[in-house]
Structure formats: C-alpha cells, structure tokens
Amino acid sequence: IAGITQAPTSQILAAGRRMTLRCTQDMRHNAMYWYRQDLGLGLRLIHYSNTAGTTGKGEVPDGYSVSRANTDDFPLTLASAVPSQTSVYFCASSESDGQPDTQYFGPGTRLTVL
Amino acid sequence: GQNIDQPTEMTATEGAIVQINCTYQTSGFNGLFWYQQHAGEAPTFLSYNVLDGLEEKGRFSSFLSRSKGYSYLLLKELQMKDSASYLCAVYDSNYQLIWGAGTKLIIKP
Known about the structure:
Chain A is about 0% helix and about 45% strand. By secondary structure, chain A is an all-beta fold. Chain B has about 110 residues and is mainly beta. Chain B starts with a strand and ends with a strand. The chains are: A mainly beta (about 110), B mainly beta (about 110).
C-alpha cells in the first residue's frame, strides 16, 4: 500500500508554462488537500475536496485549479506559472471531511519557476 | 485574524527533555494536532488533543489548555533522529486546519 503518491518529485519550469502536479491516494479517503510550504511560513491550503466531484478554495487559490473526477486522484494545475509559485507542494488526504481528522501527506513536489 | 505562534528554532542535547510551545488565536477550536517533519520529507502525525490535559505516547507527550489557547509538545530522552521541525495545527470553527510555521529542533550530541 503506497498511501499517497505525488509526481513529479521535482520540476524546474519556465514562467508562463502550464504545469499539472499529480496526486493519487489508495486509502479510499474522502477528503483531499493541496498545500504549499514556503520557508518561514506554515503550510497554506490552496484547494481542497471533501468528496469526489466537489472542490473548494483554500487560503491561497489564485493561479491554481483542481479537479476531483474520482476518489483517488486530485491533480493541481498551474495555468501559467509565475516565480512566486516556486514552493514545495504537498498533497494530503483524510478519511472524512467536516470533522477533525488526521491528514496524511504525500512526499511533496519541489517546484521552481524561473 | 487567525494566528498560531511557535518558536522558530530550539536546540537541545541528546538524552535531555525539551518542551515546544504553541499558542493559538483562532475562530473557534475543534482540536489541535502536532506533526513532525524531517528536512525534505512530508509531515507525519504525532498527536491530537481536543480536551484539556496531557496525552502521552511513548517518549512524546502533548498538553492542551483551551482556556489559555496553549499547547506544548514534550519530547523525552531525546535522540538524534528527533532532529526535525514540529508543526502545530488547529482546527477552527469551520473545520479548516490552520498551521503554525513550525519549530526547528536541533539535537546536539
């Protein structure tokens, strides 16, 4: 059982390019999340999905979009990357939504936008 | 606004005890988590507190005082592998998880 996988592990991207970060979980968790982590700041929520077919905006959603076509996959797309999107991106999942529940994290994607 | 405060960095000696504090000001409270994050890795779950008091789990304990908006993580018998960042996170009234910036713990021999 892999838990949560993310791809790619790292990427260097030219500004203005489109990029999709992939996230897959095999725990059949209902809720999934995308965070970015920057030095000196806490994890910041970009988008979330409480269940397949629904998504919501987090604290820093601008410049990002997500989809949740099924339970397992939750891709994050940067339509036109900018240098301020250089960060480490973590995908996470939890069994339930709407109540306190442990979130499990993927290994992260280190993205550099030049 | 919502705010979670933790010290940026702490240093301790192998075999000793260290206490990492977390204070929070959030719109409502539905529980507090501690996560451990080694450099270059993902955060991993350590503990969850929703009621006041101490929760003990092996060498790690976590304490919560809801009236004071305060928690601490206590690490005993420190080992070199405990060198990591420790993240405090609070569920607010909307069940959004608010994260602190983390405390980097350096263990010296």
